Amino acid sequence: MKNETNNKDLIIQLYRAFSKRDHEALDRICAKDILWTQNPGFPGGAVNIGVSNIVENVYEANSSRWKFFSFQRKSISVATDTVLVEGVYVVQGHDAKERVSAETAHVFKIKDNKVTSFQQYTDSKTLWDNHNQNKIS
Q1: In this protein, which residues make up the domain named SnoaL-like (predicted)?
Q2: Are 104 and 97 spatial neighbours (Cβ–Cβ below 8 Å)?
Q3: CB-count exposure of residue 129 (10 Å: 0-12, 13-18, 19+)
């Protein structure tokens, strides 16, 4: 149970560090070669390796890709070396009139108290429809 609590806390620290762009904390929390996989259909979806690539290609890119982008955590479940985070993305494209939400699940793998991988599962159609709103009308 203690290891599961530690893994849950580690993921909470990870989200906090990414939101603050705290590179020192991210380097402590993540394996050097962390594998970060976003849905291929997700806006900007790709595989990134290493904290600096993740910050640049995921977090900074989302800041420029969207007028508004946030993640709201709903639950965290832990099973040994795997942490499942269920949540909701709330986004607004630059030309969209309103924000939309999309359910998502984040699956993290942990080894030796370091996050080694992230896999995202998201309803990306909702996000694309909002992102491309000016092209639809």
Answers
A1: 13-117
A2: no
A3: middle
Q: Which two tokens stand for residue 124?
A: 């990306």
pLDDT digits (tens), the chain, 137 positions: 566 669 999 999 999 998 888 999 999 999 999 999 998 878 778 899 999 999 888 888 877 888 898 999 999 999 999 999 999 999 898 888 889 899 999 999 999 999 999 999 988 777 767 676 554 44
CATH of the domain spanning 2-66+73-86+103-122:
3.10.450.50
The residue ranges of every structural domain in the chain are 2-66+73-86+103-122
CB 30 within 8 A of CB 40: no
